[in-house]
Write a structure and sequence with these properties.
Alkaline Phosphatase, subunit A, 2 domains, 30% helix, 20 strands, Gyrase A, domain 2, globular, four-stranded antiparallel beta sheet, alpha/beta, 16 helices
Length: 434
């Protein structure tokens, strides 16, 4: 079995981090795998390889006709291991034990998420088969040069107002904002007609859904308990080649609001585990279906009262041309022209105990954003200086100035992600042949 210690790492100012893998042992390699299995012609132009056979053995992929990809938002590899040990995930624990004992129908390995380890970046890659620098969703908050403002990317609207760029005031089209072609469009173009996105019904028609699920048949559920019967029904109703993406959002919600070490987290993982068990039992045993379970990121357990406020560093804020963006656990700083080295020096001197600093060029050289050079348009969204908070610390940007009195509140989080600690960056990959 491939282990977490086999995954690439790097050190920064005494801290050890996980380096995202794009060469076959990372989340970004899942979508190329699906394309290669269901429509080999659909991988034309895709630079990222499929999952390595050390992660997904060849015996699990031969003759696959249907792929079900189940993604549990916020369920990191280490969280899953902890909940299995606590008895909260017996079905997943049994499947992982079967893999460890050499069952040829099951495989389990930790893989790396993308960077930053956040939902929009990770789901962008899962739904497009390219790295975040190629699809453009590079963080929860981003400075968008084309709008000349920092935006919140899940809502896809100005950070300082609770509106969307799809509203008549802006009149923007989210489909064209997404830089990449989606998985579903590629599969459809290659002749595979049955492509489904199974998501909460409330996500239908939102900007992010319109970006990520272009050309998919959208299947909305009211409650997560409906996810399993919906997926089982989609597989059962046809023997035609099929791709189903199914998304479970609430482990992430509980982790953020209540915390990843709480009984509530264990209860939510138990609910997810129960549905996984039912899914494995009720999918038709045709021998041509591959079920893969993964996540977009994990969580660190945070203490909100120990959050470090950028407002306590007004000298630094004055050196920036836009407010800090990115993630609380992976901050993007956009210095004023000519101030990049000054900003980096300030961070290394005044914030060294809080967060090691790295220049964007060094992050690109390390391959944190993916293989190859960084395009100018991607660079404009990232900023020139990056901060990686130590341990479980978080860097909190000051509330944005509201232009209309309708300013979103600054949330309090008890679980966070975005950085490259093992808790955040390692995600599960469970594969079951059915």
């Amino acid at each position: 079995m491939f282990t977490e210690e086999d995954l690439p790492r790097f050190e920064l100012d005494g801290e050890r981090f996980v380096r995202p893998d794009f060469a076959g042992r990372g989340l970004a390699n899942v979508a190329p795998t699906v394309l290669e299995l269901l429509a080999p012609g659909a991988v034309d132009g895709i630079e990222l390889p499929a999952l390595d056979t050390t992660v997904l053995p060849a015996q699990l992929t031969r003759g696959v006709n249907t792929v079900v990809l189940l993604l549990a938002d916020g369920l990191g590899h280490l969280q899953l291991q902890r909940e299995i040990a606590a008895g909260n995930a017996p079905n997943l624990g049994e499947l992982i034990q079967r893999a460890a004992e050499g069952d040829p129908q099951v495989a389990y390995n930790p893989i790396t998420s993308v960077f930053p380890t956040t939902t929009v970046a990770a789901l962008g890659s899962v739904n497009s088969a390219v790295a975040p620098t190629e699809h453009g969703l590079l963080g929860y908050t981003l400075y968008l040069p084309e709008f000349e403002m920092v935006a919140e990317m899940i809502r896809w609207g100005p950070l300082n107002r609770r509106v969307s760029f799809t509203d008549p005031e802006f009149g923007q089209v989210p489909e064209s904002f997404f830089w990449a072609e989606t998985m579903y469009a590629r599969l459809q173009a290659a002749g595979l007609r049955r492509t489904f996105a199974v998501n909460p019904i409330g996500f239908a028609g939102t900007a992010l859904t319109r970006m990520l699920h272009q050309s998919a048949s959208y299947v909305g559920y009211v409650s997560t308990s409906s996810l399993q019967p919906m997926v089982s029904r989609l597989v059962t109703e046809s023997n035609q080649p099929t791709y189903i993406y199914a998304y479970w959002p609430t482990i992430d919600t509980i982790s953020h609001i209540v915390g990843p070490f709480t009984p509530e987290h264990g209860a939510e993982v138990a609910a997810f585990d129960f549905q996984v068990g039912r899914l494995v039992e009720q999918l038709p045993e045709r021998g041509d279906t591959l079920l893969m379970l993964t996540a977009d990121h994990g969580h660190v357990d945070t203490v909100p009262e120990e959050g470090v406020q950028f407002s306590d560093h007004p000298e630094l804020l004055k050196m920036l041309r836009v407010p800090p963006a990115g993630e609380r656990r992976a901050v993007y700083l956009h210095p004023r022209p000519g101030a990049t080295l000054e900003v980096a020096a300030y961070a290394r001197e005044r914030l060294r105990d809080v967060a090691p600093a790295m220049l964007r060029d060094d992050a690109v050289e390390l391959g944190l954003f993916g293989p190859g050079r960084l395009s100018e348009r991607a660079a404009g969204r990232i900023g020139e200086v990056l901060l990686f908070p130590r341990g479980n610390l978080q860097l909190i940007a000051p509330p944005p100035d509201s232009t209309d009195g309708n300013m979103p509140r600054v949330p309090v989080f008890r679980g966070l992600h975005g950085g490259l600690t093992a808790e955040e960056a390692l995600v599960p990959l469970l594969a079951v042949r059915i």
